[in-house]
TrEMBL record:
CDD domains reported in the protein's UniProt record: ABC_6TM_Tm287_like (cd18548)
Domain ABC transmembrane type-1: 17-298
Keyword Cell membrane (UniProt): yes
Protein species of origin: Fictibacillus phosphorivorans
Name this polypeptide is given: ABC transporter ATP-binding protein
PANTHER family cross-referenced by the UniProt entry: ATP-BINDING CASSETTE SUB-FAMILY B MEMBER 10, MITOCHONDRIAL, ATP-DEPENDENT PERMEASE MDL1, MITOCHONDRIAL
Any one GO molecular function term: ATP hydrolysis activity
Length: 585
């Protein structure tokens, strides 16, 4: 957690200036009563106009100094706190970018968003407030006690005894409130989660008429946040009357003890009045301190939450025997006895897979839902690492490639098309940093989306809404294929990315893909697509059920035959069988 505050170090000069300016303001504040006394005693009471004029001018000058110091202090405080917030946001963002999937599973997106926004704001506010008033409160406190001791140490002993107890109490409040505010921030995550899911699933919610249900869900999360916040604030609010009550008892005691001393002649009345005066000032400072404590409790909770993100250990890193010169040249892929389970569960997802694909070949992967197809894909660009066995690319273990170079050579089209807010050009060009417009258009042509784009009102400049709301499922799929093609990858991986395409468009797409000299993995549910591939891998519950060409599988795999029959019907099945066999001879 302290690490989060340590980023303030970069601004030590500005912080020094801001604190110096606070001291200037404080100095003027402390001097003013003295000057006032001077004007009254030597000027007004003695009817000396020159004294009044002189000290009046000094007071005015000091007021100007305090005014300027206050404004300059605000300027520096804002500069420091805003830059500090900017730094933290950037660091958290960069850290999150380096997260592995396993890291991501630990922090829900909604929580990361709250941490990067609300938590950073809490820290910023506290830093700003600290620079504005933090020094004043303790200094006024120390000043008040010192002055009291000078005036009459016997009476001031009451304060010397009381204050440590009160400060101890405040420390307890800080700690307790800190953990309560931690809860508050976690509830805020909850509210953001419901809100995020709602906004993203708006269409579904309307179609399913689940508005009331979602409204209740939101209200529950929202009221939990309210309850937690109220009880945390209550603790702080209660602490102020407690402080004032104790202080008031102390003041009563000073009055009682003082009056006895006065009657015995050992203390002056003025001294009692002065000390009571200082005590009242100290009481008001304590109130300010409890506000500061509230801010600090919140900041502490927020700093913890940000610290958790920054301190997360990235578990998927370059292996020690990385060969920095390795890049994917040809695109051969081999799985050797690969087994895999997700780090957060023990259930095996892939079991002892072995197969190999030569450069330029196409492999179709079939298998029922949940059989491990997407999981298999993720092992090649090292989005996850194998549990056992090896994945080899061009004969080298993927672990030996620098992660960046490995992923650069692979074009992935995820199962669910993800698009970003921006133009079509930007979305396709996102796949390759320096893509030219020719490259973008040619990728779009091959992905069979060019004609559709040409018909749009602004063609390639058409804005894609958030997550591609203004596009059809098939259009989104083809755009994300174009985004992968523009990379000219050595290995292209399509995760059921043609599911929303009609057979004719899909045929054209597959034909265009053949002109790319890349190894292609296609996850598909359609036999018509699989038939065209060099190899078919039929997965069943994470294990290889069958491997071979369409013809081979027709003869060796009853499960494959069943799938073919279910998709084509008995009559067409015979036709497919015959057609493929004659066409391939
Ligand atoms: N699984 C998991 N944790 C994840 C992702 C998946 O435990 N983060 C489990 C769910 C499945 C199994 O792994 O039981 C295989 O999931 P896949 O996504 O690999 O399955 P498919 O891609 O084959 O299924 P679909 O055709 O539905 O996409
Ligand atoms: Mg899948």
């Amino acid at each position: 957690m302290w690490k989060v505050f340590s980023y303030l170090k970069a601004y030590r000069v500005a912080i020094g200036v801001a604190l110096f300016l606070t001291l200037t303001e404080l100095g003027v504040e402390l001097l003013q009563p003295l000057i006032m006394a001077k004007i009254i005693d030597d000027g007004i009471l003695k009817s000396d106009l020159s004294v009044i004029k002189y000290w009046g001018a000094v007071m005015f000058g000091l007021a100007l100094v305090a005014f300027a110091a206050g404004i300059a202090n605000s300027f520096f405080s804002a500069h420091v706190s805003q830059n500090y917030g900017f730094d933290i946001r950037r660091r958290v963002f960069e850290k999150v970018q380096s997260f592995s999937f396993v890291n991501f599973n630990k922090f829900p997106a909604s929580s990361l968003i709250t941490r990067m926004t609300n938590d950073v704001t809490q820290l910023q506010n506290t830093v700003f407030m600290s620079l504005r008033i933090m020094l004043r409160a303790p200094l006024l406190l120390a000043g008040g006690v010192t002055m009291s001791l000078i005036v009459n140490w016997k009476l001031a002993l009451v304060l010397v005894v009381l204050l440590p107890i009160l400060l101890f109490f405040l420390k307890w409040v800080l700690q307790t409130a800190g953990s309560m505010f931690r809860d508050v921030q976690d509830r805020l995550d909850g509210v953001n989660r419901v809100m995020r899911e709602n906004l993203m699933g708006m269409r579904l919610i309307k179609a399913f008429l689940r508005r009331d249900f979602e409204k209740n869900r939101f209200e529950q999360a929202s009221s939990e946040l309210k309850e937690k916040t109220v009880s945390s604030l209550r603790l702080i609010e209660v602490s102020i009357p407690v402080l004032l009550f104790v202080m008031n008892i102390g003041i009563l005691f000073i009055l009682w003890f003082g009056s006895r001393q006065v009657s015995m002649g050992s203390v002056e009345v003025g001294e009692v009045v002065a000390i009571v005066n200082y005590s009242f000032r100290i009481s008001s400072v304590l109130t300010i301190i409890s506000f500061i404590i509230m801010a600090f409790s919140r900041a502490k909770a927020s700093a913890q939450r940000i610290g958790e993100v920054l301190d997360t250990e990235i578990d998927l890193v370059e292996s020690p025997d990385t060969d920095s010169s390795l890049t994917i040249n040809k695109g051969a892929v081999e799985f050797k006895n690969v087994s895999f389970h997700y780090p957060e569960s023990d259930v095996p997802v892939l079991r002892n897979l072995s197969f190999s694909v030569k450069p330029g070949e196409t492999l179709a992967i079939l298998g029922s839902t949940g059989s491990g197809k997407t999981s298999l894909f993720q092992l090649v660009p090292r989005l996850y690492d194998v549990t056992e066995g090896e994945v080899l690319v061009d004969g080298k273990n993927v672990m030996n490639y620098p992660i960046e170079k490995l992923r650069k050579g692979i074009g992935v089209v995820p199962q669910e098309a993800v698009l970003f807010t921006g133009s079509i050009t930007e979305n396709i060009g996102w796949g390759k940093e320096d893509a030219t417009s020719d490259e973008i258009i040619s990728a779009a042509v091959d992905a069979q989306i060019h004609e559709t784009v040409e018909k749009l009102p602004n063609q390639y400049d058409t804005r894609v809404g958030q997550r591609g709301v203004n596009l059809s499922g098939g259009q989104k799929q083809r755009l994300s294929i174009a985004r992968a093609l523009v990379r000219k990858p050595k290995i292209l991986m399509l995760d059921d990315s043609t599911s929303a395409l009609d057979l004719k468009t899909e045929g054209k797409l597959l034909k265009a893909l053949r002109t790319y000299s890349c190894t292609t993995f296609i996850i598909t549910q359609k036999i018509s697509t699989a038939m065209e591939a060099d190899h078919i891998l039929l997965l069943d519950d994470g294990a290889v059920e069958a491997w071979g060409t369409h013809e081979e599988l027709l003869n060796t795999s009853p499960l494959y035959v069943k799938i073919v029959q279910s998709q084509f019907g008995e009559e067409d099945f015979q036709h497919v069988k015959g057609f493929k066999q004659t066409s391939s001879t």
